Amino acid sequence: MAGVEAWTALPQHEGPQGLTCGEQLVLAGCRYWASLRLAGQEPQGPVRSLVAARASDRAAALFVAMMESLEKQTRRPLDFRCGGCAGYSPDEQRLVVACGISRIDMQTARALLTPLVHQPEPVVVFARAVNMVLAHEGLDLPVRLSDPKPQIRPGAARPAGATLH
Fold first, then answer.
1. What is the mean predicted confidence (pLDDT) over 114-133?
2. Lowest CB count within 10 Å: 42, 64, 79, 143, which one?
3. Which ranges of 39-56 would DSSP assign to H, the alpha helix?
4. Where do the H-state alpha helices sit in 10-119?
5. First vs last Cα of the chain: how many Å apart?
6. What angle do CA 151, 97, 6 make, to 5 degrees?
7. What are the backbone dihedrals phi and psi of residue 137, each rounded to the nearest 5 degrees, phi first?
8. Contacts of 87 (CB under 8 A, 6+ apart)
9. Which residues face 159 on adjacent strands?
10. How many CA atoms lie within 13 A of 160 on its CB side?
11. Whole-number mean pLDDT of the chain?
């Protein structure tokens, strides 16, 4: 991702794979953070600018705090994709879903983040704050665990609609 200009050029409606604008923002922020780290740059300022450009300074500060909390205690290197990748890694999915569900079920959010971090509580607290501020800005993060399970087609070895990489 090239920065704030790249994000603001994206359409501001349901994105690929049905992600809401709030989910797109969280995903873009995570991917931008990772790309800056890989480039040997400090991500706090640029990522804060990215989130502030679409949401608010308050949302940006909380997002950066969440990412710092996540980064300081990871169990292993996280799998965040590049900005142009259409697929979503399991680590990205865990973080986006944890942000969405943290508003109503902190225990499930902690369980989602446990494989990623040693102590999920601080990350979940920031994820909930990010969720609440984004909701205030009109960028609600949905609770995704209520989606229906995929149906198995007769003769198929995988769920309908599953993407294999």
1. 96
2. 42
3. 44-54
4. 21-38, 44-54, 57-72, 90-101, 106-113
5. 21
6. 110
7. -85, 5
8. 81, 163, 165
9. 152
10. 8
11. 82
Alpha carbon distances (Å) from 67 to 11, 47, 130, 136, 151: 24, 10, 11, 20, 35
Q: For tokens 């995929």, what's the residue?
A: 150
Q: Please name the residue that has the structure tokens 């969440």.
A: 66
CA distance 105 to 100: 9
Closest by CA position to 129, among listed 20, 56, 49, 45: 56
| Residue 156 binned pLDDT confidence (cut-offs 50, 70, 90) | very low
Distances in whole angstroms, Cα of residue 10 to Cα of each of 15, 24, 38, 101: 9, 10, 23, 25
Provide the 10 A C-beta neighbour count for residue 52: 17
pLDDT confidence band for 140 (50 / 70 / 90): confident
Nearest to 137 by CA among 34, 20, 45: 20
Q: Is the pTM of this model over 0.90?
A: no
